[in-house]
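Below: protein 1.
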Amino acid sequence: MPGKVLIIDDDVDMVEAEKMVLENNGYTVSTAYDGEEGYKKILEVNPDIIILDVMMATPEEGFQLAYKLKEDNKLSKIPIVMVTSVSKETGFKFDPQKDQDFLPVNQFIEKPIKPEELLEAIEKAMKSRN
């Protein structure tokens, strides 16, 4: 089931760790380090799934990009796995079941992420696309 993954995160070490896990499991990985670059890459590579951080240039940049994607008919079908440490930074806990109207993402994972947790979230999100 591997496909094209776009990782959008300003943490270079996190991007490299996720990229290594994904490539070792057969995924083709592209990367971007902020929301603007990420949006351009989405249009360029047409990923099967996006791994998106919340806090980048601004504390809510990832949310802003997720909303922008969900409002675009051509891009709204791309599953998004949101990975973040926003709960640790702000104390605010997100629950995808309770907050699904607020969170325009398919999966939500707190950093740090175990490789098997990342792979499982991607598989679940990819299935939701079909």
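Below: protein 2.
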Amino acid sequence: MTELALSLIFPAYYDENNIGPLVERSLETLAGLCDELEIIIVEDGSPDGTGRVADSLAARHHEVTAVHHEKNRGHGAALKTGIANCSKPIIAFMDGDGQYDPVDLRLMLDLLEDADLVQGRRRVYPNGMKRLLISRFYNLCIRSIFSVPFKDLGCSIKVFRREVAQKCMPEPDGIFAQGELVLRAHYAGFRVVEAPANCYPRKSGRSSSMSPGNVQLLLRDMSRLRSKLRNQ
């Protein structure tokens, strides 16, 4: 049996009460699955106690490393910092707000046997009808603009091989980065599949993903990638 060495990235912002239970659950869930495991918490300049909790987790668990941004740099920047600090051949990514369940990584890792990147697809959207409609419209635009089949590029749980990140590192520091990673991988010829994932309401903290500033950056980054891919 092939040994599994996994780096798991948690971007964390306003997650003082979320990141601890998520890390503990991840350690418990993956203990018997991974031969080597490292968890990288990227604390993205959060003004609450997220950084303090991340450091405490790193002090208690040798598998955990806490990396800090001095100021908030964005979801994509946290993803890229996490990737830069990974040492394992397989990389997983999951938001640090506890909306996703590390149990779903088991199926995604199984699917990675015949794929290069596994993208989550939410079974149920837990954040209200307005956000559901926005998500569906966003993914419809993605499929239309980039001619891809993916159903839920806004789903923030993914597993991929290190070479995908090395060849398809996204440029944006904002929320489009995770989608751009998948799109770049698809256009580069990597095998990309989707897997069902559970998603739960955020229990604590706040999300800024749909703030006007982030939406504006999202549209700009989509337009930039569209132009770049067309010119290749």
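The radius of gyration is 17 Å.
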